[in-house]
Design a protein that fits this description.
This protein is mostly helical. It is built from twelve helices and two strands, in the order H-H-H-H-H-H-H-H-H-H-H-E-E-H.
Length: 315
């Protein structure tokens, strides 16, 4: 099947299995509420204890850090459990045409470990990429500002900088601009800063490209782990080979997802106001989460439909 036939198949499966919306509903609405309640019971006791001490900072910092770690761990466990159950729901619905909450419980139990491990592994990879970018930015930008001292212009204010030809678009006398002259050494002191930001931008572009490629080539690792019952590394390897063999289909899937997201954001922009006019009126801002939930559920199912169709695997 081509991707448009798979879209039709996914729609028909979703229409017959409304339970597929359950995981997205939980993630969108119930999970945040549950975590907020847990956070309340974690942080309030710390505040009460700290408020009755002469030096509350130690308790606030230590207790707050521990509470944040606990909250993150609970959030990850909850997220992975729901994703594991949802993945099995999608697999069974596509392969058998019908699924139930029993399949969610089976998936949550069976695939929790490998999805948790894979999520942590990929999270570490993305964290390393982010750390390299942050470290490079600090290393390059910090020296450019070393030795830079405030001038009289900065002490007195900025009025004369608005008469600067450089700021009005005339670059012929940029070196004579009072704003530029406000730095020690004039233009010569600005050039290292510009060079540093330019280099950081180049490195950021490279790292973002690497992260995007990793995301694209590992996008099918959960379907591979669930449908083919593979371990973490084999599932990631299978995803890489699958995307390599079905690259245009993968790009088409991502393109459709981006279009759906942009369409939703344009159709239902955030709004302030609304209210009652002889009855309840749903504002565009209120409808956006509903459509976001539909998009998330549908494209998660479509991801599995593409993988199952291309690999022709059945239980």
């Amino acid at each position: 099947m081509d991707i448009f036939e798979l879209i039709g198949k996914s729609y028909n499966v979703l229409k017959k299995n409304l339970i597929l919306f359950l995981p997205s509903l939980v993630l969108t609405y119930l999970a945040p509420v549950a975590l907020a309640i847990v956070a309340l019971y974690l942080f309030v006791p710390v505040l009460v204890v700290a408020g009755n001490l002469s030096d509350p900072m130690l308790v606030l910092m230590g207790g707050g850090f521990i509470d944040i770690v606990i909250l993150i761990v609970l959030a990850v466990i909850l997220f992975v459990t729901i994703v594991a159950g949802m993945s099995n729901l999608n697999k069974v619905a596509l392969q058998k045409g019908q699924t139930s909450f029993k399949d969610f419980k089976i998936g949550a139990k069976k695939y929790f470990g490998r999805i948790l491990g894979g999520t942590i592994l990929l999270g570490i990879i993305y964290l390393i990429i982010f750390s390299i970018g942050l470290g490079s930015a600090i290393t390059m930008i910090a020296p450019a500002f070393t030795g830079l001292q405030s001038s009289e212009m900065f002490k007195e204010g900025f009025p004369e900088t608005f008469d600067c030809p450089f700021l009005s678009g005339d670059f012929s006398d940029a070196a004579d601009c009072p704003f530029i002259q406000g730095f020690p050494g004039g233009m010569a002191s600005i050039q290292p800063i510009i060079r540093a930001f330019a280099n950081v931008s180049g490195i950021a572009l490279i790292l973002v490209t690497i992260a995007a490629l990793i995301f694209i080539f590992t996008i099918f690792w959960i379907p591979a782990a669930v449908v083919d019952d593979l371990g973490i590394f084999k599932a990631i390897g299978k995803s890489v080979s699958f995307v390599r063999e079905n690259f245009y289909t993968t790009i088409g899937f991502l393109g459709l997802f981006i279009i759906a997201e942009l369409f939703t954001s344009q159709l239902f922009p955030p709004s302030i106001g609304g209210g009652f006019r002889g009855g309840f009126s749903m504002t565009p801002g209120a409808l956006a989460p509903l459509f976001q939930l539909i998009i998330t559920t549908f494209f998660a199912l479509l991801l599995f439909a593409i993988y199952i169709d291309r690999t022709k695997k059945t239980e």
